[in-house]
Design a protein that fits this description.
heterodimer, A: alpha+beta, two-stranded antiparallel ribbon, 17 strands, B: 229 residues, mainly alpha, Fumarate Reductase Cytochrome B subunit
Chain lengths: 508, 229
């Protein structure tokens, strides 16, 4: 048993309004630089849709993450990208590297022309200028969130890899869906336990911080071999074409170290984001990534440990987890959502990287559909009770299989259980607040949702009315103490935690 | 005198510049060590340039190095005419491969605005120097046959004499000027090494073959292990 701490995250998708405030907060702090213009360490994509970079979920195209092979009768996970010799052989040309066009060519506008244009018959215009070449772009063909809110949906949404396995009727439902229903998927680096980027890096420049599990790329060790970009199935490492280095989300560690949540968390308008510590058993990672797809979510849950168990606490202390970290683990909202309530699920567990960002799948609007005469109807709305909700899952507008492809490696039962519990929480809360639900129906909903009134109440409170302190349980990282053996805390403080004060640009 | 400057002083200066400059750059500006790959901006033409160029030049350089390190074994190897023919033909083909690849890379850098945007003047200096060097090498191989044989008895003794600090240029002074230019070109590249993207050659990630997949770094952990994986 090797208990470690991991700063983990939950995004509650029912609360995401797709405003992109998180993306902008991140961009303004970290990626508003030459070579990084196209990077969105935090991005919000519309689902169904192809995302950013386009079709990132299609691992036949990009070869990200891990696959399980049978080795002498024993399942073993290996990088889908290549073996160790393959990494050296492909170093001059990585066949699976996305190019800038899979993201978009960043541009600005020739604003000066608006003021400086000579007098003439026409209004001066601000033409688009490429931020790579500095030349005019006549037709902008892609941009950040090009398919936001399903713009051009027959081109974008129809190609969503998660639609695999849906039948004709279900696809037709989704075509209907494109007109009225979609949801948002905010994404940042998952700070995985079995990260594909770390494993794929030939230079060994990418590492996980032992104390808090944040995955970082050493800018001094990175040599621009570009394998991390392919190795990460979430496409959350980015190549800076100007500096020749890869970069990724750093979970705003300088902010965490001074007690603040990351900028994207802090700025979230819908307050969908939760941050907290999880304890996990590092010795069981290998086992958890080697199970069949259907069992992946449960396997990942099983290596997350109970922070109240004295045995776990002792093992964690032995492994160097600080008391402050243990305290944070006990108060962690992430632990509740992921392990206690089993409401938050990892995105694409079948990539087998053990992502540490979990999503509460979106519930609405799953029932409404447009009928033949063009009316918008909610299934079961004619009934006088809320009971139809409970049997509605299989009649949902967004097929469960789609959600299962996203959040449960294809296991519909896992997603169904989440939704049943979410329904139960709604009914219970409505009975408390409005009082128009018969007690026996609430009771039935709670039973089907496998929950209790106490738990439903707690879920409601942490979902709908959490305080700032409840959402963000930033552990005291005590970086200033941890580094004092290697660097003076005063020097560390002046470097705001980076130890790296050169301009990130090409000098030679 | 002139030969002494070219074949004794210049090689030593080049190596000194490379070592001192390389170390200074490594310890003062490690951030700048990168392959500066442009694959992200353009893939298709890079494939047809980068792959033949790198594989060609790596194999050719390895052959140069092997003959330098093991002149006796190399001499025995090329003593057999069939093996000599095979080596010469392979060498010529590889040289052609590097030239084609490098020209492809240069054309790409000129033609593609995106690649042009990530090209510095030092990149051009390096590209011209490399092209000159491989063209000269090809020329030598074509015009002065059996180089894999006479290399061992001319350039190798000269290089070895430089290594043991007893420079002896009698092996090379009588060689044709094309061959001399090729030799000097090698040291020009050595001197260019610390100032250009060539530094990536010395960071080939061979450790990837045995390092553990997951890397975990601890600031401070109880027990002897400062760094655990």
């Amino acid at each position: 048993m090797d208990i470690r701490a991991q700063v983990s995250m939950v995004f509650h998708l029912d609360k995401c309004i797709g405003c992109h405030t998180c993306s902008l907060a991140c961009k303004n702090i970290w990626t508003d630089r030459k070579g990084a213009e196209y990077m969105w360490w935090n991005n919000v994509e519309t689902k169904p849709g192809t995302g950013y970079p386009t079709l990132w979920e299609d691992q036949e195209k990009y070869k990200g993450g891990w696959e399980v092979v049978n080795e002498g009768g024993k399942p073993r996970a290996r990088l889908k990208l290549q073996g160790r010799f393959g990494a050296l052989a492909n170093i001059f040309y990585n066949p699976y590297l996305p190019s800038v066009d899979d993201y978009y060519e960043p541009w600005t506008y020739d604003y000066a022309n608006l003021l400086d244009a000579p007098e003439g018959d026409d209004q001066p215009t601000a033409r688009a200028v490429s931020q790579i070449t500095g030349k005019y772009i006549d037709t902008i063909e892609a941009g950040p969130n090009w398919d936001d809110d399903l713009g051009g949906s027959t081109i974008y949404a129809a190609n969503d890899p998660n639609l695999a396995g849906l039948n004709e009727a279900e696809r037709a439902e989704l075509a209907e869906l494109q007109r009225v229903v979609f949801f948002y998927l905010p994404r940042i680096c998952n700070h995985c336990l079995n990260a594909g980027c770390v494993a794929a890096c030939p230079a060994g420049a990418i590492y996980k911080r032992g104390e808090d599990g944040i995955v970082l790329i050493s800018q001094e060790k990175c040599r621009g071999w570009r394998m991390c970009i392919s190795g990460c199935p979430y496409k959350k490492t980015y190549y800076n074409w100007h500096t020749g280095k890869s970069e990724k989300c750093i979970l705003c560690f300088p902010r965490l170290e001074s007690g603040q949540p990351p900028a994207c968390f802090h700025s979230c308008v819908g307050r969908i984001r939760y941050l907290g510590v999880l304890l996990y058993d590092a010795d069981r990672i290998e086992e958890a990534i080697s199970v069949p797809n259907q069992e992946l979510v449960e396997a990942q849950r099983s290596i997350i440990q109970d922070p109240f168990d004295p045995k776990i606490i002792q093992a964690a202390r032995d492994g160097g987890v600080s008391d402050a970290m243990l305290d944070a683990a006990q108060k962690s909202p992430v632990y509740k959502f992921v392990k206690l309530w089993k409401l938050a699920l990892p995105l694409h567990a079948e990539f087998r990287t053990l992502p540490m960002l979990f999503y509460v799948p979106p519930m609405l609007p799953v029932l409404a559909r447009v009928t033949g005469d063009g009316n918008y109807e909610v299934a079961g709305a004619a009934d006088h009770s809320l009971a139809p909700l409970l049997s509605s899952l299989d009649r949902a507008r967004v097929p469960l299989r789609y959600m299962a492809n996203l959040f449960a490696a294809g296991n519909e039962e896992v997603v169904r259980e989440v939704y049943r519990k979410l329904f139960a929480v709604r009914l219970h809360s409505r009975s408390q607040q409005v009082g128009d639900v018969p007690a026996d129906e609430v009771q039935r909903a709670l039973e089907i949702g496998k929950t209790t009134p106490e738990e439903a109440g707690a879920i409601f409170r942490l979902t709908a009315r959490p305080t700032y302190q409840e959402r963000f349980l930033v552990p005291p990282l005590h970086r200033e103490e941890a580094i004092e053996q290697t660097i003076s805390p005063y020097k560390e403080r002046s470097e705001t935690g980076f130890g790296f004060l050169e301009t990130p640009e090409r000098r030679w | 005198m002139f030969d002494t400057i070219l074949f004794v002083a210049f090689p030593y200066v080049a190596v000194a510049v490379a070592v001192v400059g390389g170390l200074l750059r490594y310890f003062k500006d490690r951030f700048s060590f990168s392959s500066q790959s442009s694959e992200f901006l353009e893939k298709r033409e890079l494939f047809w340039g980068s792959v033949p160029w790198h594989y060609g030049v790596v194999i050719i350089l390895t052959a140069h190095l092997l003959a330098f390190l093991f002149p006796d074994a190399w001499g025995a190897l090329v003593a057999n005419p069939v093996r000599l023919y095979a080596l010469e033909i392979t060498g010529l083909a590889l040289a052609l491969m590097t030239i084609v690849g490098l020209v492809m890379l240069i054309v790409r850098r000129v033609q593609r605005p995106r690649i042009n945007a990530v090209t510095t003047w030092l990149d051009w200096v390096l590209l011209v120097a490399l092209l000159a060097q491989v063209v000269l090498g090809f020329w030598v191989a074509l015009a002065y046959r059996w180089g894999s044989d006479w290399y061992v008895r001319t350039a190798v003794p000269w290089l070895r004499s430089l290594v043991v600090l007893q420079p002896n240029i009698q092996f090379v002074t009588a060689l044709p000027w094309v061959v001399k230019l090729h030799m000097l070109g090698g040291f020009v590249l050595v001197a260019l090494f610390p100032f250009t993207r060539l530094v990536h050659v010395f960071t080939v990630p061979v450790t990837y073959l045995w390092r553990p997949y997951q890397v975990v770094i601890w600031n401070r952990r109880p027990g002897p292990a400062g760094r655990r994986v």
